[in-house]
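Dear U.,

For the methods section draft, I wanted the exact inputs and outputs in one place so we can describe them consistently. I've listed the two proteins in the order they'll appear in the manuscript figures. Please don't edit the C-alpha cell lines directly; just add comments below if something needs changing.

First protein:
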Amino acid sequence: MTLATAILLTVITAATPLLIAAIGELVVERSGVLNLGVEGMMIMGAASGVAVAIITGSSTLGVLAAIGAGVALAAIFALLTLALAANQYASGLALTIFGVGLSGVVGAPFVGVQREGIGRITIPFLSDIPVIGPVLFRQDLFVYASVALVIGVSWFLWRTKSGLILRACGENPVSAHALGYRVLRIRLYAVLFGGACAGLAGAYLSLVLTPFWTSGMTAGRGWIALAIVVFASWLPFRAMLGAYLFGGLIILQLHAQTAGVAIPSQFLAALPYLLTIVALTLIMAARRGTGAGSVAPAGLGQPFTPDR
C-alpha cells in the first residue's frame, strides 16, 4: 500500500507541470495559433520564479514573476505572428531558443542556491484515508490548480459563448471576422493565457519539484506538453489523461531502471520523448485533415490578416 501511494504521488508530481502547460497550449491552438515556444516559456518561468523567490523571500511573488515571464514571451510571439503575420512554426522555435538562452542568463547567479519549497496542503481526516488520502487530499496548490484549470477550460470552451467564439476563430477566422468578431484580439488573449500557464508550469519545476535552479531543468517537458494536446484531440479532459499517462511513462522508466529490467536504460529514458516526436509529427497531418476525420482546428497554424 505504501509503495502504491508513493508511485501515485510521483506520477502526479511528474504530470502536473505537463498538464498545466498542455491546458494553456490547448486554448492557444483552439484559437487557431500554434505556439511551439512552450519549452522556452516554461524555462523562463522556472528561472524568473526561483530568482524572484530567492531575492524577495516570497514564493507568491516568485509564482507571479514566473507567470509574468511566460506572458512576456508569449507577447513577443503574438507580436511576431499576429501583428506581423510571421510564420508561427519558425517564430515558436525561435521563442524556445531565445527562452532557453535567456533563462541561463537570468538563473546564472542562483545556480545551486536552495530555498524552502512550497509545501503541501493537508486536509484533516481525509488525508488519513489509506492510499487515496495522501494522493487526493495532501497535495500542493499547483496540483489543485491544474485540476481547476481543466474543469474551467472545458466549461469555457464548451459551455460559454466566448468559448464558442474562440473555437470559431480557430476553425474559420475569415467567417468569424465577417461576423464582426476581432479575431486577432481573441487570439492574442489565448496566446497570453497559454504563456501564463507555461510560466506557471515552470514555477512548479523550480519552486516545488526541485526548489532550486539548474540550467535546462525543463528537460523537454514543453515539447511533451505540445504532444499531449495532439494526443488529447484538443479536448481538456483527454489532455488531463494524457498528462498523467506521460507522467506515468516518465516514472515507469525510472522504476524500470531501478529494478534492473533487461531493456537498455537509454531506450527507457528516451521513451517519453520518442512518443513526443511521434505525436508532434501528427500536428501537420491533423492540420491537413479534411472532413469529419479532422480533429485539429481547421485554421491551426495559418496566419490571419483582416482585410480591414
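Second protein (the one for the lower panel):
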Amino acid sequence: MNKQDLLTAVRLGPYTLPNRVVMAPMTRSRAYNRDRAPTELHAEYYAQRASAGLIITEGSQISPQAVGYVYTPGIHTQAQIRGWEKVTAAVHAREGRIFLQLWHVGYVSHPDFHDAQLPVAPSAINPNTQSFTLQGLKDTVTARALETSEVRSIVQDYVQAAINAMLAGFDGVEIHGANGYLIEQFLRDGSNRRTDAYGGAIPNRARFLFEIVEAVSEAVGSERVGVRLSPANTWNVPADTDTRSLYDFVIGELSGYQLAYLHLREAQGDLSGIPNMVTDVSAHYRRVYHGTLITNTGYDRQKGDQAVANGQADLVAFGVPFISNPDLVERFRLHAPLAQADQATFYQGGAKGYVDYPVYQAAAA
C-alpha cells in the first residue's frame, strides 16, 4: 500500500505529531451542569480520539459574557479548569496532544444568558440569526456596542483563559477568530462600524485580533498558540467590502508571530455573487502565510492526502468524520469505510451519539 502523506509525522510548535490528521473543534453541547464544566463523559469522548495527531476542543467560553449556546463548556472558573484536567489527563494517557479553543460569541447570543442584559459586539447590530437557549432556539437581538475600555478588558479575558487552559494541562490554545463570532465581527466592516482605534481601516479592525494574539503569546508562548480564521465565511457575519484585502493583510501579519499554526476554513456554498472573496482559501493563503498551516472543511481521506502531498497544507482537520469514527486515523490507514454520524445527536443526548460509536474492528466483528 502506498504511503499516505496524511499519516506522516509533522512538527507543530514544540511538538512532533505522529500524523497530520487533526480533530477539528466541534460544539457538542454536553456540559449538562450548572458550572458549564466538562465531565468524565468529555474525557472519554476526547480520549477515544487521541490517535489524532492533534485534537482541538470544542469552543470554550473565556468568560460569562462570552456565552451564546446552551450546555457549552467554559475555561474561566476553577470548576471548569478541574473538568478540563480530566480531559487532558485522559488524552495524554493515550499519548495524544490537545489544544483548547478560546471562544467569545459576541452578538451571536441572547439576553437569556446574561441576566436579561444585551449581548455585546463591536457595534450595535442584530445578526438576525438564532441562539440555542434552554428554551430552544430564540431570535437574536440588537447587541450593545462595547466601550473602548471593555474591548481591552476582553483581551485580558483571553489571556486569563489561556493561562487557565495551561493550568488544566492543555498543550496549547487556539484563538477562535472564525465563524462570525466576536473576533470576526471586529474584522468585517459590515459588523464593525466603530470610530475608535478598533474601527475604520483594516489595520484598526484587525487590532483586536492582534492584541489578543500578542498578549496570549506572551502569556503562554507563541509556539503554543494557534489561530483559526474563515476568510470565505458568510455565516453570522456579512462579507467585508473587500474580504480578500482584509485577510491578505491579517494573514500576512500573522506570519510574523511564530505561531504554532494557522487554521483556515475552506469556503462553503455559492459565493460567486460576492466580490473580492477568496474561494480557494488554503491554496491562496499558503502563499501568504509562512508557517504551519491547517486546512479544514469538506475533506475526505483522499482530498486530505492530496492537500498535504501538493503542499497546500501541513495538516488537515476533520470534523464530522471524527464524531462517528473515533478511530479515524486507523480507518484511514486501512482504507476502511467510515461510519455515518447520527445528526440527531450532534447537540443533544448524553453518551448516545457521543461515546458509543464503535471502532472499526468492533464494527467488523
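Candidate sentences for the figure legend, describing the second protein: The mean pLDDT is 96. The first strand starts at residue 10 and ends at 12.

Thanks,
Y.
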